[in-house]
Amino acid sequence: MSGGEGFVMLQRRSLRLFLLSVCLALAGEANSAPIIPEGDGRQTVELAGKRWTIFTYRPSACSPASLLLLFHGRGGVRHYRGDAHVLADKLCAIVIAPRFQTKTSHYQQGGIVRKGVVQPERKWTVNVVTPLAQWARTQTGIDQYNLIGHSAGAQFLSRVAAFHDDAARRIVIANPSTYVFPSLDVKAPFGLGGVYPDTEAEARLRDYLARPVTIYLGEADTNEEARDLNRSPDAMAQGKTRLERGMKTFEDAQQLAAKQNWPFNWRLVRLPGVGHSARKMFSAPEAIEALRP
What residue stretch is flagged as signal peptide (predicted)? Predict the structure, then answer.
């Protein structure tokens, strides 16, 4: 083989290697490309060291500009995702809905307390919100997100608002059975008592009242015998019905903030004529008001 032929073969080999590297790079980009399809979808992802099933919905008639992280009630995540279609279409928002097992201490109460004992912070279920939001941002390239939950999911978000710091623009707590009451005298998970050292506790309570929380209530959610209504002594201390509990929690929080001259970023939105229905709560114009920054 002449020197010229060897040089040509070397060039060809270098070209093939270059083209192969380009193809591999493109294939890698394709495999890692964010994929949340239009319409309904589902993915299994790893968040905080655990595998989660994430149900999604992407509107097809617009270019989404925000994320709606949805936390379901006992009706199940698939059902709740469907309930959120109308709201997502109005907002042009992508729905991100993780599936939880609705075990009260694990989900509704955020994993803060188990069998009467405050758990180490690393075990709190509320901690999944930040990696979930980060995953959604990476998948979509959209930074802005809101949290919304109904019933059991709203109980979870009440614990998120009280015990977890994140960058949500608004946290909408709709028709929960219980709240984190704005008090250090009420023990967690129904208040903030017993979780933080005395030197930190008041600051955490102040931060809770400064969170961008909306308490969103169906005015007809007044059934004292509702099947899923928590009737424990701690829950009954908040009120007899979901409407009463929401009003009391909001009013006490507002009064405490005014008394202490603390920032107060909560909002109360009431929906006349609607009871414990996620579909009606999400599709009403009041839902847009609840999510307003």
Answer: 1-32
What is the chain's alpha carbon radius of gyration, rounded to the nearest angstrom?
A: 24
Q: By the 8 A CB rule, do 292 and 170 touch?
A: yes
Residue 22, pLDDT > 80, answer no
**3-state SS class at 241:** coil
Q: Which residues pair with 45 in a beta bridge?
A: 52
Q: How many CA atoms lie within 13 A of 158 on its CB side?
A: 31
- Taking only the tens place, the pLDDT of each residue in 163-214 is 999 999 999 999 999 999 999 999 999 999 999 999 999 999 999 999 999 9
The pairing of beta strand 267-271 with beta strand 117-118: unpaired
The Cα–Cα gap between 70 and 95 comes to 7
- 163 vs 73, 107, 183, 203, 264, CA distance in Å? 20, 14, 13, 12, 17
Please tell me whether residue 247 adopts helix, strand or coil conformation: helix
Q: What pTM value is reported for the model? A: 0.88
CB neighbours of residue 44 within 10 Å: 9
Burial class (CB in 10 A: 0-12, 13-18, 19+), 7: exposed
